[in-house]
Amino acid sequence: MDWHQQYIGKVKHAVFHTQKTGRKRVVVSTEENVIASLDLRHGEIFWRHVLGINDVVDGIDIALDVITLSSDGSTLRAWNLPDGQMVWESFLRGSKHSKPLLLVPTNLKVDKDSLILVSSKGCLHAVSSIDGEILWTRDFAAESVEVQQVIQLDESDQIYVVGYAGSSQFHAYQINAMNGELLNHETAAFSGGFVGDVALVSSDTLVTLDTTRSILVTVSFKNRKIAFQETHLSNLGEDSSGMVEILPSSLTGMFTVKINNYKLFIRLTSEDKLEVVHKVDHETVVSDALVFSEGKEAFAVVEHGGSKVDITVKPGQDWNNNLVQESIEMDHQRGLVHKVFINNYLRTDRSHGFRALIVMEDHSLLLVQQGKIVWNREDALASIIDVTTSELPVEKEGVSVAKVEHSLFEWLKLKGTLMLASPEDVAAIQAIRLKSSEKSKMTRDHNGFRKLLIVLTKARKIFALHSGDGRVVWSLLLHKSEACDSPTELNLYQWQTPHHHAMDENPSVLVVGRCGVSSKAPAILSFVDTYTGKELNSFDLVHSAVQVMPLPFTDSTEQRLHLLVDDDRRIHLYPKTSEAISIFQQEFSNIYWYSVEADNGIIKGHAVKSKCAGEVLDDFCFETRVLWSIIFPMESEKIIAAVSRKQNEVVHTQAKVTSEQDVMYKYISKNLLFVATVAPKASGHIGSADPDEAWLVVYLIDTITGRILHRMTHHGAQGPVHAVLSENWVVYHYFNLRAHRYEMSVTEIYDQSRAENKDVLKLVLGKHNLTAPVSSYSRPEITTKSQTYFFTHSVKAVAVTSTAKGITSKQLLIGTIGDQVLALDKRFLDPRRSINPTQAEKEEGIIPLADSLPIIPQSYVTHSLKVEGLRGILTVPAKLESTTLVFAYGVDLFYTRLAPSRTYDSLTEDFSYALLLLTIVALVAAIFVTWVLSEKKELREKWR
Amino acid sequence: MEKGKGVMGSGRRWAVDFTDNSTTPSTRDIADPPGFSRASQDQDDSTLSRQKKDAEANWKSQKAWEVAQAPFKNLMMMGFMMWMAGSTVHLFSIGITFSALWQPISALQGVGKVFEPYKDSKVDLLGPKLLFIALNLGGLALGVWKLNTLGLLPTHASDWVSSLPPALEVEYSGGGIPLQ
User: Fold this and answer.
1) Interface contact flag, B179 A519, Cβ < 8 Å
2) Residue A830 and residue A495: Cα distance in Å, rounded?
3) CB-CB: which of B161, B163, B168 is closest to A663?
4) pLDDT for A459-489, tens place per residue?
């Protein structure tokens, strides 16, 4: 029923640990700020730590423990290698930002203590690897030198620190690593200036670019002298126009330059001349140099060739020689190779073998050894952007094997309940239960529990996960068009969900992306079939997309109409068919859209005006006009949250019946927007403002008319605000500075203009207009009720359960700071709670008021598991009214089924239908037998 | 109701008639007991039968009134049981309420049958019947009242609106914070 999957994200850096006997492992850091130790044999996680969202890992290495540098070089931590326990943590201070560098020299050892050198924030720190004590610090920022490299001289305790002051002054310091004593300082100016990364070619030579990016500058600082040597790129026979950059690498005597879309390997000859060794396209990836057996070096080059990937391991400095050449078949859904890390091992014949850890474009991680993929991890699933669901295909007619199996299982279960089962039968029952083929079938089930979860990841890869067991059904790396080389994906929408008319069509999803990161960038639309996982279509649009609105209308093939709003406030209708336009034109005057400009503090409402006027006549483009705007005073209010109701939410009834048989009419409108603003002073983190200068104002706004329905100020409160709007209520979470605690407030909205409808006779006869369509322009009068409670946890995400008909009571799903999901009954957040509820109110289920919301350990839906890096919670109704499906995602994935009011409409899985049937049959037989007997007896009586 | 049948109904098997109205001479052989006067019997046969019929009619109407009043006892008992059952909905109170509803209804259905044995041209059954019906209606009313106190009658507005779907909205709006 539940499943939980652990991921790590796209690997940034990997360090192997294979020297000693015992478990071979690779320690990795990822773009999701995860540090993990992976089993090199199977790719499983030994241990893992998810650092905070701002705690970006800058470097990782293994000294005695695993050493990580994070938070822009300000935090240095050591983790125990076998179990991942944190050994120590040091904070490194500095005044200025500089490139964070981590260096763990191999031979600088005092007793057992080895030294860790960290250059960050303008300073160089030497840290003890045993307890993290800072042994010495040298401030380079004081001399306004920006450190570029820290270099260890071979086999000595001296280090070189090189850096720039300004853009043209080159500094080289020679330092005793043991005590931080400055041995020598050389400086020289280079008129051309420096730009970009530096590549270290040998321990006393490095290469960088001048500010024109057309000249390679070789800087050597041998023998306490700095010498510059310029080599024009055109002298190497290369066209230097375009984007030139030096790629960071650690190959000895060689470095890599990327020019436009190809890469050059350039070697430094013994006469200090540069020569091009090899020229490859930009898809080729090179690993860092690996030192194996007595100073021999090797590096790996990975090239693409059709559906294959060629891995070549070459000895250092010798391009034409190959140590290993392997070619492996690669799934084209994995895209290009992004990174490669190599490691060596000793074969049984004492020769050296190499294994490569490859990071692909789709963020997957593969271990390749002897031309085979040993294991792979789909780590794109650690970076989900958006999730939607899709139904599975309907089961075909005919008796399937599963059905026969199922009836067999029923008989076995019956035997078990009647205690007739032999030990073998019991074992068989257990085995079937464990396997439970029922839950992972690829067809729709009666209760609607089996679904496909379609997830869009940062890697531009879409996965379909089976809700039964969480396996990947298909995955698709979105097609990259020539016109756009850095597309980003934004959101997923259900494009076509056939259920009535177009049953033979497969459902499909719409993926909206944009080419680039700015909001003006042109949009990209992709349509993906959710059964087959094929990309049906893909368009590069001319306009941008800042908003996507799925309309509540579908065409004859059940394609949902979507409106895309571009940054010029024009709206574009999709699909571009004449049918869609005729549907749209019927509803033309009833379609509105609103924009929340959080930076300017403005909310605007727009209506569709007319067709676009432009040179190119576009029938599907419409101009809009501003209808209303709400401008928040910039000096006192700043928008921090805007939440609206889920468009697909189903509400069962508009009336709420209280204990005295009284009726309250809920104000149920989909065009309702909850906005929270805070004082600009208090918009920072908690503690940055006094309670007196902090306030939180919440608004409920009708998005058609712009009318503010409700406004409330919480003095001494500040964000972050997490809110959920459902039915006629909104629940929001914020921090109360006066009470030093988090609070949750609930506001329920009731329609006062309907309150008069209480005449039973009229209601019986149906003479009321309660179900007649309503317009926001009728200005319904509303009343609100609110209540506030303390809540212990800070919150990462809030969601609410949703069921098929909306009858079942609701639960709030709160993603806590501990990365767990807590289910809290909505009954606890009811503004009608009072300290002493009357008997009638108690019968209705009103809980006596308490100042804080209870956290019942059993109500954690994630049990003891953690959804590390929790970002979102999705709830989907099952077909069974009592049940809702919950999918929580972050770095980990978690899926479960919830029944907020218990499963009142179904029997448990353990229920033995066979026993029920048997009982009925036995009863019928007994009735028949007794009837016959009584007839006989009566006849005998009559003869007497 | 059953009792009336037992005494006078068709189910009677045998009876001893102590009024000897035989006129056969054979019985005259035996001397009358002292003090017995046959004269009164001999007087007029017709008066005798009329008297007898009157007595029967009287008796029938008396019985009919009795039967008509019988539901009153029932009513009292029902009332007591209902009071005992309380006003919360559970198995006991539901059972009592439904039997309180069912009994009067079944009695009203069989109102003709109940009074059939007392049917007589001389007996006016309208009064007892009306009383019977009235009492049973009273019982029915008591049952309905109980049903209402249990909250099982749709007499409140809330009973009629609790499943009203939300009204449709004319306008549609979408949007929000621009996509990041």
Assistant:
1) yes
2) 37
3) B161
4) 989 999 999 889 899 999 988 777 777 788 8
In the prediction, which pLDDT does B3 show? 44
User: Among residues of chain B, what percentage have pLDDT more than 90?
Assistant: 3
Instruction: Please state whether beta strands B172-176 and A591-597 pair in parallel, antiparallel, or not at all (unpaired).
Output: parallel
Among A594, A663, A704, the residue with its CB nearest the CB of B157 is A663
Q: Would you place residue A675 in the very low, low, confident or very high pLDDT band (cuts 50, 70, 90)?
A: very high
Q: What is the mean pLDDT of residues A551-566?
A: 90
Q: SS3 letters for A800-863?
A: ECCCCCCCCCCEEEEEECCCCEEEEEHHHCCCCCCCCCCHHHHHHCCCCCCCECCCCHHHECCC
| Nearest one of A602, A386, A418 to A488, comparing CA atoms | A386
Q: Which of B87, B159, B160 to mutate to test the interface with A (most CBs of A within 10 A)?
A: B160
Chain A residues inside the 8 Å CB shell of B151 = 661
Is B127's Cβ below 8 Å from some Cβ in A?
no
- Count CB pairs under 8 A between chains A and B: 138
State the SS3 of A880-921.
CCCCEEEEEECCCEEEEEECCCCCCCCCCCCCCHHHHHHHHH
- β-strand partners of A525: A512, A539
**Tokens 């300004």 belong to residue:** A166
What are the Cα distances from residue A177, in Å, to A77, A117, A162, A184, B153?
Answer: 20, 8, 14, 13, 91
Facing residue for A763 by CB, picked from B157, B166, B174: B157
Q: Which residues of B touch A593 (CB under 8 A)?
A: 173-175
Q: Give the nearest chain B residue to A661 (CA atoms).
A: B158
Q: Which of B154, B164, B172 sits opposite A653 (nearest CB)?
A: B164
Nearest to A671 among B164, B166, B173 (CB): B173
Give CA angle at A540 (A567, A606), nearest 5°: 25
Report CB contact under 8 Å: A773, B168.
Answer: yes
Tens of pLDDT along B26-65?
455 677 777 766 655 555 567 788 888 888 888 888 888 8
Q: How confident is the model at residue A798 (pLDDT cuts 50, 70, 90)?
A: very high
User: How many residues comprise chain B?
Assistant: 180
pLDDT band of residue A721 (cuts 50, 70, 90) is very high
Percent helix, strand and coil across chain A, each to the nearest 5: 15, 45, 40
Suggest the residue from B173, B177, B179, B180 to mutate for an interface test with chain A (most A CBs closer than 10 A).
B173
| Mutant choice from A490, A546, A659, A753 vs B, greatest count of B C-beta within 10 A | A546
ipTM over 0.90: no
Chain B contact set for A654 (CB, 8 A):
161, 164-167
The per-residue pLDDT for A142 is 80
DSSP per-residue codes, chain B: -HHHHHHHSTT-------S-----GGGGGSPPPTT---HHHHH-HHHHHHHHHHHHHHHHHHHHHHHHHHHHHHHHHHHHHHHHH-SS-SHHHHHHHHHHHHHHHHHHHTHHHHHGGG--SS---HHHHHHHHHHHHHHHHHHHHHHHHTT-S--SHHHHHTTPPPPPBS-EEEEESPP-
| pLDDT bracket for residue A437 (50, 70, 90) | low
What pLDDT was estimated at residue B37?
66
- For chain B, the C-alpha Rg in angstroms (whole number) is 32
CB within 8 Å: A593 and B155: no
Q: Inspect the interface and report whether the beta carbons of A591 and B172 lie closer than 8 Å.
A: yes
Q: What is the DSSP letter of A392?
A: P
* Contact by Cβ (8 Å): B109, B171: no
Higher pLDDT, A120 or A441: A120
Q: Give the nearest partner residue to A773 out of B163, B167, B177, using CB atoms.
A: B167
